[in-house]
Amino acid sequence: MINTSILRYSIILLVSLKMVAQEEPIKLGVIGLNHGHVGWILSRESKGDVEMVGIVETNRDLAERLSKQYNFPLDMVYSTMEEMITAVRPEAVAGFGNIYDHLAIVETCAPKGIHVMVEKPMAVSLEHAKKMETLATKHNIHLLTNYETSWYPTNLRAYELYKEGTIGGLRKVIVRDGHKGPKKINVSAEFLEFLTDPILNGGGAIMDFGCYGANLMTWLQDGKKPTSVTAVTQQLQPENNPKVDDDATIILTYDNAMAILEPSWNWPIGRKDMEIYGETGAIYADNRHDLRLRISEGYDGFSENVFRLEERTPPYDEPFALFASVIRGDTKLSPYDPYSLENNMITMEILDAAVKSAKSKKTIKINN
């Protein structure tokens, strides 16, 4: 017969060990430093959930410059993923290089059981995305894609209002994203180099900002794919973006609704906004914090509620907290969550069709 005191002590010890393990920060490796969003992790204050343990960057000048700016030691910078993984054994990595390299990150990390988060879009092509999905599924790792708009409280509230039936059945969604252009907003030379490369970025504005609308629409539609994709691209700044498009319009048709995505590097004012039109009203997510709800009254009248929303609660307020929470098992992403693999596979299918449509000047049908 087992001594009850020993049994009680064993249970307490197991619970204590589990709590300690949960409190240990996730060891995170950073792959690449040339993405302009890398400052999010380099400047992130310690919250006890994530510890940056190593960096992979072949551009020594870039590494030295950012080391001085963000005060990280150069001895944590490695030339290859294999060197970094062997030296510091990360549990997870975040990709902050060009989009083409996302596949190589998953190819290296997935077989080792290392979880991966990449910046949007998930990949440069549907072909790359399918290979990434296969590896993530085979090796049972989390593969997340980070979108800034996923943290917006306005997008969450717009989603909730729509799902609550506040504006009736969905009819049209318009998503506008972009800015004046990478060169005009003075991104770093390293960031500009791959953003304007059709191989390394998969395209120009159509990929860089078209992914936001495709991602949000897939979320709103609970993973339902469009029936067709039609896209038109232009190059309005050939002097700044000689190899890629810098303006696009993408039309998605669904059985009872339509979405118009307007990704551009030609907006005079930077923006990330969404309009959702239903049968009885409209929701305007004007930016991260400001939302308007209009309910139809007569022909052109309406009642309006205006909201100023606070930041979302952790871990949904920024990418690394969410990544750590998902890895620990504390958070389970809802079906077709903007970060989720299943959402981003459909997002990539939409982008792939949009690029093909723009090149062929034809509407591309999507198989559901």
Automatic annotation (TrEMBL):
Leader sequence residues:
none
PANTHER family, alphabetized:
BILIVERDIN REDUCTASE A
**Superkingdom:** Bacteria
Outline the extent of the Gfo/Idh/MocA-like oxidoreductase N-terminal domain.
Answer: 26-144
Instruction: Name its species.
Output: Saonia flava
- Which GO terms label this protein's molecular function in UniProt? nucleotide binding
Name of the protein this chain belongs to:
Putative dehydrogenase
Pfam families reported in the protein's UniProt record: GFO_IDH_MocA, GFO_IDH_MocA_C3
InterPro entries referenced in this protein's UniProt entry, alphabetically: Gfo/Idh/MocA-like_OxRdtase_N, Gfo/Idh/MocA_Oxidoreductases, GFO_IDH_MocA-like_dom, NAD(P)-bd_dom_sf
Instruction: Name all GFO/IDH/MocA-like oxidoreductase domain ranges.
Output: 157-283
